[in-house]
Design brief:
- With 317 residues, the protein is an alpha/beta fold.
- The protein has 2 domains: 14-115 and 297-311, 2-Layer Sandwich (ornithine cyclodeaminase, domain 1), CATH 3.30.1780; 120-294, NAD(P)-binding Rossmann-like Domain (Rossmann fold, 3-Layer(aba) Sandwich).
- It contains 11 helices and 14 strands.
- The strands form 2 sheets. Strands 9-8-7-10-11-14-12-13 form an 8-stranded parallel β-sheet, with helices on both faces. A 6-stranded mixed β-sheet has the order 1-6-5-4-3-2.
- Strand 8, helix 5 and strand 9 (185-187) form a beta-alpha-beta unit.
- Helix 3 crosses helix 4.
- The N and C termini lie far apart (42 Å).
- The model has no long low-confidence stretch (mean pLDDT 95).
- Bound molecules: 1,4-dihydronicotinamide adenine dinucleotide and 3,4-dihydro-2H-pyrrolium-5-carboxylate.
- Homodimer. Binds the thyroid hormone triiodothyronine (T3); T3 binding inhibits enzymatic activity.
- It is an enzyme of class 1 (oxidoreductase).
- Belongs to the ornithine cyclodeaminase/mu-crystallin family.
Length: 317
Amino acid sequence: MDRPGTHTMAAAPVVISQDEVRSLLRYRDLIPRLEDALAKFSRRDSADVIQPVRSTVPYFGLMPTYMENDGVLCTKVLCFYKRQAGSALPSVQSTVLILDPEYGNVQAVIDGEVITGMRTAAASAISAKLLMPARAEVLAILGSGHQARSHYSVFTEIFTFKEVRVWSQTRASAERFSDWAGGAVRVCGSAEEAVRGADVIVTVTRATEPVLLGQWIKPGAHVAAVGACRPDWRELDDALMKEAVVYADSKEGAKAESGDIILSGAEVFAELGDILNGTSPAHREKTTVFKSLGMGLEDAVSAKLVFDRWRAKNSQT
Ligand SMILES: NC(=O)C1=CN([C@@H]2O[C@H](COP(=O)(O)OP(=O)(O)OC[C@H]3O[C@@H](n4cnc5c(N)ncnc54)[C@H](O)[C@@H]3O)[C@@H](O)[C@H]2O)C=CC1
Ligand SMILES: O=C([O-])C1=[NH+]CCC1
C-alpha cells in the first residue's frame, strides 16, 4: 500500500472548448487521417487499433480507442436523447477525453459536439468519394439538424453538385436550414420529392421508422445513412436495404446497433476500410448504402488532431 504523501500529481488536464475545436479542426486535415484510420481498423491489427463496439446503457455510450503505434488513448462519452419538447440542448451531447497511454492521466477534456459533427460528416464524405456514381449532380439531405449542417458543409466543400435539396419534419426547419446555407438549397415538401433522381442521399434524422424508401431511389445512387443508431430504429426500408450493396464503418458495430441492418436481415458487404485497403471492391455502378454508426476511432483521430494543434498554438504564446 502506498504511504501518504508519496503520490505525484499529474498536470491538470487542459479543457478545449467548442469554439476552440471549431477553429482548430479542418476537413482537409481530418479526411486523410480518417481514411488512414479506417484502413487500419479494417486490417484488425491490434497494434494499430483496438476499438470495441460502443458500450451502452440507455441514452449513454462509452467509446474507447487505443492506437498503440500512434500513442493514442482516448474515449468519448456521449448521451443521445429523444430531444425533450422545449429543450434547446442538442439531442447528441458528448465529451472526448485524451489520456496519456503510458501513465493513464487525463491530458485533455475536449468538447465533443463539433468533433462528432465533423468526423461523422467526413466519414460520409469518404463513403461518397468511394461509392457515389461518376458525375453525381444532385445531393439530397433528409433532416435539418446538427448533422445536416456538417454534412452540407463538407459535401459542398469537397464535391460540386448542380443542386442540393433538403427535406425535414417541418417545412419551417427545412427553410431555416436553407437560410443558414445561404438559400442555395431547394426546400422539398416530401422526402420522396427530395430524393427522386438524386445521385447522393444523406439521411440525418432522428426517425425511428423508415423515412427513405427503396422505390424512390434512382438505380446507382449512393446513400449515407447516419441516423437510426439503435437496434430497433430505422431510417431506410427493407426494399432499399435488400436492393443495395451495404457498406459499414464497422461490421461488428452495424450488426450490434443498426436497426436497418438487423431488422431487414441485410448483409454488410464490406467496411469502408476494406475498400481503402483494396481488399473489397467499391460498387460505384450499383445502388449503395453506407451505414454509419460512428466509431470511437473517428473521435480519437479528430481529438488528437485538435490536441496537437492546441499544443502547437499554446506553446508559441
Ligand atoms: N452515425 C453517427 O456517427 C452519428 C449519428 N448520429 C445520429 O444522426 C441523427 C441526427 O443527429 P443530429 O443532427 O445531431 O440530431 P438533431 O436533433 O440536431 O437533428 C435531427 C433531425 O431529424 C429530424 N427528425 C426528428 N424526428 C424525425 C422523424 N421521425 N422523421 C423525420 N425527421 C425527424 C429533426 O427535425 C431534425 O431535423 C440522430 O439519429 C443521431 O443519433 C449523430 C451523431 C453521429
Ligand atoms: O458515434 C456517435 O457519436 C454517435 N452515434 C450515434 C449517436 C452518436
